[in-house]
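fyi for ur records
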Amino acid sequence: AIILFSAQLLLNFAWSFIFFYAKQPGWAFADIIALWLFILLTIVWFSKISSAAAWLLVPYIFWVSFASLLNFYIWQHN
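which gave:
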């Protein structure tokens, strides 16, 4: 579970770099989709350990879902 959590943190950091510094919204979108999947896997694994820990990640996946939509929109309109 901690490896999944670490991986999603790395993907989150990478997204910021790819989107804002490298200015590559297409690659950033691919990264954020991978991030979303890793967050989902992290929630599933955390739920086996602590229900509270899993529920605390739900707002995070909602936020990443919204950010994904924004990223896709920017990618398609630039």
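The two ends are 37 Å apart (CA to CA). thats all i got for now
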